[in-house]
Amino acid sequence: MTTAPSPRYTSAELRALAEKGAAEFGDAGPEEVLRWAADTFGSRFCVTSSMEDAVVAHLASRVQPGVDVVFLDTGYHFPETIGTRDAVAAVMDVNVISVTPRQTVAEQDAEYGPKLHDRDPDLCCALRKVAPLEEGLAGYDAWATGLRRDNGPTRAATPVVDWDAKRQKVKISPIATWTQDDLDAYVAEHGVLTNPLLTDGYPSIGCAPCTRRVKPGEDVRAGRWAGRGKTECGLHT
User: Is 207 known to be catalytic?
Assistant: First the structure.
């Protein structure tokens, strides 16, 4: 038996689906919105994961076993993050796809000079995160993220379903309404893999050169690009 190919939508149709989904799933639970995404987009739906944890990947795999999980391998990750990616690929019913920048770190250093992340972190993120994501999402009509409204002020208004105008895709944040307690409870109940750095003072994990431990009382994202005005890498702006 041959599986029917997933439908391909025009940009106008995708935008209409995003608007319909936003109205229907305003504050819906993750299973409900992910079921809609799987039914609507099929193999043209994927999850993106930074491998802080595998919660959204786990949730999606329950409604769409073998779902694609796109991971941006920037070349600057902590070893623990790469280990989490490999563990997720080994034990979960997902298809992990590692997307890399067009240049290796050495090639980027040769063109832009060493430690671009220290001198121009926005450009470094653009080269090693934003551009690779554009390429990694090229074959999909919808993508899911792990954004939560309680991640900080810049994410407080995160919708569950949104229109990603920059990429012309439907963007889904299935756990947008969850708190840290909700996430911790799900991890405990289902034994979901998490990055060991989360219990070592890193509540928000990015590339190693631009991430430090968070001090008591600081915002959870205070360790990202510390000492700079930068708060986002550009993937969600």
Answer: no
